[in-house]
């Protein structure tokens, strides 16, 4: 496209935002995209992908181009084309993203060049020399060298391919079943239902049974049977019998209200009060309504 035509098309596009004019400007500069993309071609990157990203940069440049500044569109667009291609290269170079800071981007594109330059000068570069030469932190150089030298591993493949019995990484990276989202939701619903049922059960008690329920079943720091027996004016053995009878009633009530879910959680009625006293349902004591 001649310079005069470029200025005319760009000026008309700024005024009208006509898609036809934008297409004319983009089409006239697509060979520039191919030229820049070829400079960044690597074995792991398809040339067509680089050109596609460069075309996005060219489209962005056309939308922002101001012909009144006296700069050619190709000169202005080259910066946007290169920026889009560089971002694509960084985003797809590894599964784990790199180049997230300005220093990392500088190292990503210039570290190997700086290494080669020092080697041609007869210097065996280490991380400290590279950091000084590039004016970055040594730890950033070490981190980038490690990323260049590392490769991704499949989570489904064995850790050591030579040993077929090896567990795959996904087998030991996964969360335990108790931490899985569906299990957490089910547990939360069970806790809420059980808490409500237990409070209702406590509301129907009176006398010694209510004291045993409040002091021995849902108290974080339950007193001993001997302490309760003194208050009741009976023997410790009699207090234990009252507690055992109340355990059975609570167990039967929960089974009736909640079915098999409570049976699987508490296989024996003897475990119910001891579990409740440790706050089994919410990590702290469950307070019954008197």
What does this structure look like?
67% of the residues lie in helices and 0% in strands. The C terminus is likely disordered. The chain is mostly helical. The termini are far apart.
Provide the helix percentage: 55-70%
Judging from the principal axes of the Cα atoms, what is the shape? elongated
> Which percent band covers the strand fraction?
under 5%
Give the tally of β-strands: 0
H/E element sequence: HHHHHHHHHHHHHHH
Summarize the structure.
By secondary structure, the protein is mainly alpha-helical.
Which structural traits does this protein have?
elongated, 15 helices, 290 residues, disordered C terminus, mainly alpha
Layout of strands and helices, then pairs:
Elements: H1 3-16, H2 19-28, H3 30-39, H4 47-64, H5 73-93, H6 102-120, H7 127-134, H8 138-149, H9 169-173, H10 181-203, H11 207-217, H12 225-232, H13 236-258, H14 260-265, H15 271-277
